[in-house]
Amino acid sequence: MSTAHRKCSNKGVSSNEWLRRQMRDIYVKQAGKENYRCRSAFKLLQIDEKYRILKPGHVVIDCGAAPGSWCQVAAQKVNAYGQDACQPRGTVIGIDLQSMAPIDGVHLLPLCDFTSEATQHRVREILKNKKADVLLSDMAPAATGVKSHNHEAIVTLCFSVLTFSLSVLKEGGTIVCKLWSGGDQPRLEKAMRAICDSVRVVKPSASRGDSAEIFLMGKGFHGFRTP
Ligand SMILES: C[S@@+](CC[C@H](N)C(=O)[O-])C[C@H]1O[C@@H](n2cnc3c(N)ncnc32)[C@H](O)[C@@H]1O
Q1: Distance from Cα 225 to the centre of ligand 1, integer Å
Q2: Of 53, 56, 58, 59, whose CA–CA distance to 87 is shortest?
Q3: CA of 141 to the centre of ligand 1 (A)
Q4: What residue numbers bound the domain in which 111 lies?
Q5: Residue 227 domain-assigned?
Q6: How many domains does the chain divide into?
Q7: Tens place of pLDDT for every residue, the chain, 227 residues?
Q8: DSSP class of residue 142?
Q9: Which of 49, 137, 144, 169 could covalently link to 173 via disulfide, CB atoms 3.0 to 4.6 Å apart?
Q10: What does the alpha-carbon distance between residue 56 and residue 107 come to, in Å, rounded to a whole number?
Q11: Which residues surround ligand 1 with Cβ inside 6 Å?
Q12: Which active-site residues does the annotation give?
C-alpha cells in the first residue's frame, strides 16, 4: 500500500477489504493515470465541474490536505504555478496533521493542526492582506468504531472551518466541507445558512455510495448580517 493511499484510507475498514476495494475502483486507476495522489481528486473535480467554484486567480485554503490531491486539482484550476500566462495566478494553501510531499505552486503547512490558533495565524501570514475565495475541508478525524463519535468529531472540525471563514473568506466566497452524515447535520447546515446565501448537500459520484460521506457547500458567503 503506498503512503499516499494509506493516508486516504482513514475509513475504519479492514486493510484487506480496503485493498480489494481499491484494486476494483475506477477512480483509483484513473488517479494513478492522471498523477493524482489519491482518488479523492475526482470528488473535487466533480464538484467543480458541476458548480464551477475554482477559477484562475482564486485564493484557496484546503484544510485536511494530505496526501495532496485536492491541492493538485486546486493548483491546476486557479493557475497557482502560472501555467497559463494569459490568466491571473492563484494561491493554494494546504494544511494537514500529516506530512506532505511538496506540490508545485502550493503553500503546504504539513504537521499542522488546522484548529490551532498558531496554524490559523500562519495561514493569515501567507494570505497577507488578501482574503480567500474558497475554503475547502476534506478533514477527517481518525475514525473510531463508534459512528456517533466519528460524526461528532467531524462536525466539530466543520464548525472550526465555519468559524475560520468569518475572518478569512471574501464576500461572495465558497465553503465546501466534508461531513459524515448524522444527527448534527441540520445544526451545521443552519450555521452555514446563517453566513452563506445558499447551502446544499453534495455527493459527487466519486464519493462511495456505501459511505456516509457528503459535502456541504455554502455559496455567496456574507458572514453574519446585523439585523
Ligand atoms: C481524506 S484525507 C484528505 C485527502 C485530501 N483531500 C486529498 O485529496 O489528498 C483527510 C485528512 O484530514 C486530516 N486532518 C484531520 N484532522 C485534521 C486537523 N485538525 N488539522 C489538519 N488536518 C486534519 C488528516 O490528517 C487526513 O490527512
Answers
A1: 31
A2: 56
A3: 8
A4: 3-221
A5: no
A6: 1
A7: 444 444 455 555 678 887 777 777 899 999 999 999 999 999 999 999 999 999 999 999 999 999 999 999 999 999 999 999 999 999 999 999 999 999 999 999 999 999 999 999 999 999 998 999 999 999 999 989 899 999 999 999 999 999 999 999 999 999 999 999 999 999 999 999 999 999 999 999 999 998 999 999 999 999 998 77
A8: P
A9: 169
A10: 17
A11: 7-8, 10, 37-38, 40-41, 64-70, 95-98, 113-115, 138-141, 157
A12: 178
